[in-house]
């Protein structure tokens, strides 16, 4: 009784919920937009996929190892606090890296001022015609199509067979004039528009691709420019080129690859310091609830993390969309995502200081994970569930990494992106409310196939986006894709796990999806997006999921059915049998004592007589 009075379960759950909410809010304010930031820096889809895949694989290996080490040395709270602080510091280092071209920020800047100014309506088609010439009037795009919606960065198409999105700068305008003569198929010009004295100078690019041979011309031009870049690098002494002096040790590479390797190193260091946070805090709080005999209430904390992610991604999108393209002079507004991440992580530090943790030395997490792997491997239906979660992770990586690229190409800004991702998370949280009715109609295996099919429809829909808000109907399907998949995974974990291993089995399946599947999918998705384009990437993912859904139903039909053992009933039955035997023994003992008492009393009476 004394122990129960000292432990306040409601207070512990409130602190854990607050900590999960703030950490999820911080991650969601930056991580979904990270690949978009890489695109603005000038990375290609393949480079972005390699960076994100490396990030997931580091987390796959380092998260369990760091959790075991922090438990072994009893330094969980220190690891949590150090992880929060160091992750913020390393993330902010990314802001120190300049883009591949010094004019990238102005080239990708939003066109709100131009689109809302009266100068554009006066210039109209005359400005475009005078720039590109009458011969290109039949294939040009109207200026309104080139101008993005308010608050959006200028979308740049991700084309197949190209290394990166073309960016035209004034720095290379002289050399492009000579190159256009040798390649008449590709016409590329600069348009400089001065709105008025109160509005900044906006420089953008008008790019026209007429035939497939133009992509080959771009590759040939880039290969020639890269071969001569080493000879010209020593002659560049202007002030803007001094920003690349920190890459002096990588002079043998071109600027694009220098940028890639620098970001890869920083992101790897970022993941090394941030990966221990989730597992370490999760293990310590679960063991605290287990010590207080309240481990059944542990599952209530996941909802706070989901709500925090929805608030973080939606709030960051709304905030950034209200800012101008450049803030504080030369700082791009996308840096606000990093500042939001730092601020929310700082708010999580007080909650981490009071987070209830407990060290249970008798609980061996390493053996628990190994036993969970053996349980999954020994059940055919659990193996099918594991393969499905792996493929869902591979497919989900394409959505996480390149959906915002696809939305940006169709005029979406941070407002559309943030609200659409928040809608998907809220929709996913509503599936447990429908799980009762769905389980009466479909078995968990059928629900798993339904979730994979819903994700297939989402990816197919993403490949046909046509407007900024067109993505919203597909986001509602997250209720039946991600929500249904993880509900079915939890049910499968309960079926295959023995008492005390449910959480370990769930972690194994989650690692297969969130880390191993996402890592492999990031590598493959990046190269596919660069080779075939974003639209065909999503169509290929949809086709692969559809094939697996058919195979999954057939394999589930052939797989042997295993009867679920209800261990709680067995324990109750054992307890009832033990109570019955004890009552019978007590009854026998009492009857024998009463008989002995009667006999003794009768014997005493006879002596007295």
TrEMBL record:
<dbReference type="InterPro" id="IPR036259">
    <property type="entry name" value="MFS_trans_sf"/>
</dbReference>
<feature type="transmembrane region" description="Helical">
    <location>
        <begin position="447"/>
        <end position="464"/>
    </location>
</feature>
<feature type="region of interest" description="Disordered">
    <location>
        <begin position="132"/>
        <end position="193"/>
    </location>
</feature>
<protein>
    <submittedName>
        <fullName>Major facilitator superfamily domain-containing protein 6-like protein</fullName>
    </submittedName>
</protein>
<feature type="transmembrane region" description="Helical">
    <location>
        <begin position="38"/>
        <end position="58"/>
    </location>
</feature>
<dbReference type="InterPro" id="IPR051717">
    <property type="entry name" value="MFS_MFSD6"/>
</dbReference>
<feature type="transmembrane region" description="Helical">
    <location>
        <begin position="534"/>
        <end position="555"/>
    </location>
</feature>
<feature type="transmembrane region" description="Helical">
    <location>
        <begin position="336"/>
        <end position="359"/>
    </location>
</feature>
<feature type="compositionally biased region" description="Polar residues">
    <location>
        <begin position="599"/>
        <end position="609"/>
    </location>
</feature>
<dbReference type="InterPro" id="IPR024989">
    <property type="entry name" value="MFS_assoc_dom"/>
</dbReference>
<feature type="domain" description="Major facilitator superfamily associated">
    <location>
        <begin position="19"/>
        <end position="539"/>
    </location>
</feature>
<feature type="transmembrane region" description="Helical">
    <location>
        <begin position="415"/>
        <end position="435"/>
    </location>
</feature>
<dbReference type="GO" id="GO:0016020">
    <property type="term" value="C:membrane"/>
</dbReference>
<feature type="transmembrane region" description="Helical">
    <location>
        <begin position="78"/>
        <end position="97"/>
    </location>
</feature>
<dbReference type="Pfam" id="PF12832">
    <property type="entry name" value="MFS_1_like"/>
</dbReference>
<keyword id="KW-0812">Transmembrane</keyword>
<keyword id="KW-1133">Transmembrane helix</keyword>
<feature type="region of interest" description="Disordered">
    <location>
        <begin position="213"/>
        <end position="238"/>
    </location>
</feature>
<feature type="compositionally biased region" description="Polar residues">
    <location>
        <begin position="155"/>
        <end position="175"/>
    </location>
</feature>
<feature type="transmembrane region" description="Helical">
    <location>
        <begin position="302"/>
        <end position="324"/>
    </location>
</feature>
<comment type="similarity">
    <text>Belongs to the major facilitator superfamily. MFSD6 family.</text>
</comment>
<feature type="transmembrane region" description="Helical">
    <location>
        <begin position="380"/>
        <end position="403"/>
    </location>
</feature>
<feature type="compositionally biased region" description="Basic and acidic residues">
    <location>
        <begin position="584"/>
        <end position="598"/>
    </location>
</feature>
<keyword id="KW-0472">Membrane</keyword>
<feature type="transmembrane region" description="Helical">
    <location>
        <begin position="259"/>
        <end position="281"/>
    </location>
</feature>
<feature type="region of interest" description="Disordered">
    <location>
        <begin position="579"/>
        <end position="609"/>
    </location>
</feature>
């Amino acid at each position: 009784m004394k122990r129960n009075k000292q432990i306040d379960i409601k207070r512990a759950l409130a602190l854990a919920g607050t900590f999960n909410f703030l950490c999820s809010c911080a991650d969601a304010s930056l991580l979904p937009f990270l690949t978009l930031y890489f695109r603005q820096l000038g990375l290609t889809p393949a480079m972005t996929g390699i960076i994100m895949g490396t990030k997931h694989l580091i987390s796959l290996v380092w998260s369990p190892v760091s959790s075991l080490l922090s438990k072994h040395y009893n330094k969980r709270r220190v690891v949590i606090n150090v992880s929060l602080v160091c992750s913020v510091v390393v993330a902010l280092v990314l802001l120190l890296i300049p883009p591949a071209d010094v004019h990238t920020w102005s080239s990708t800047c939003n066109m709100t001022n131009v689109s809302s100014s009266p100068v554009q309506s006066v210039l109209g088609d005359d400005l475009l015609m005078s720039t590109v010439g009458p011969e290109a009037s039949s294939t040009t795009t109207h200026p309104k199509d080139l101008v993005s919606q308010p608050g959006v960065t200028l979308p740049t198409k991700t084309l197949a067979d190209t290394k990166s999105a073309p960016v035209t700068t004034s720095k290379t305008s002289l050399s492009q004039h000579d190159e256009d003569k040798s390649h008449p198929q590709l016409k590329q010009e600069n348009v400089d528009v001065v709105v008025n004295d109160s509005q900044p100078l906006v420089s953008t690019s008008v790019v026209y691709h007429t035939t497939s041979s133009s992509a080959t011309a771009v590759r040939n031009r880039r290969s020639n420019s890269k071969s001569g870049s080493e000879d010209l690098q020593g002659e560049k002494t202007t002030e803007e080129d001094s920003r690349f002096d920190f890459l002096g040790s990588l002079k043998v590479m071109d600027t694009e690859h220098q940028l890639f390797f620098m970001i890869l190193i920083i992101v790897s260091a970022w993941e090394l310091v941030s990966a221990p946070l989730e597992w370490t805090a999760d293990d310590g709080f679960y063991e605290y609830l287990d010590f207080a005999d309240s481990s059944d209430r542990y599952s209530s904390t996941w909802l706070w993390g989901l709500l925090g992610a929805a608030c973080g991604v939606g709030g960051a999108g709304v905030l950034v969309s209200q800012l101008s393209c450049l803030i504080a002079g030369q700082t791009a507004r996308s840096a606000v995502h990093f500042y939001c991440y730092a601020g929310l992580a700082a708010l999580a530090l007080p909650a981490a200081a009071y987070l209830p943790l407990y060290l249970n030395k008798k609980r061996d997490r390493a053996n628990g994970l190994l036993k969970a792997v053996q349980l999954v491997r020994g059940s055919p239906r659990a193996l099918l569930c594991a393969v499905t979660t792996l493929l869902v992770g591979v497919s989900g990586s394409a959505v996480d990494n390149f959906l915002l690229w696809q939305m940006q190409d169709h005029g979406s800004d941070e407002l559309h992106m943030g609200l659409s991702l928040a809608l998907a998370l809220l929709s996913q949280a509503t599936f447990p409310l429908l799980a009762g009715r769905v389980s009466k109609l479909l078995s968990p295996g059928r629900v798993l196939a339904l979730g994979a099919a819903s994700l297939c429809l989402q990816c197919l829909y993403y490949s046909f986006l046509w407007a900024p808000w067109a993505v919203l109907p597909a986001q509602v399907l997250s209720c039946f894709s991600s929500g249904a998949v993880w509900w079915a995974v939890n049910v499968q974990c309960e079926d295959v796990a023995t008492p005390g291993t449910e959480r370990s089995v769930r972690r194994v399946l989650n690692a297969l999806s969130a880390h191993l599947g996402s890592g492999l999918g990031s590598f493959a998705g990046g190269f596919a997006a660069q080779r075939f384009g974003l639209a065909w990437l999503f169509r290929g993912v949809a086709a692969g999921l559809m094939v697996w859904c058919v195979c999954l139903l057939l394999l589930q039909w052939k797989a042997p059915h295993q009867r679920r053992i209800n261990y709680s009933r067995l324990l109750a039955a054992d307890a009832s049998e033990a109570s019955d035997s004890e009552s019978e023994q007590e009854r026998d003992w009492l009857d024998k004592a009463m008989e002995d008492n009667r006999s003794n009393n009768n014997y005493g009476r006879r002596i007295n007589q």
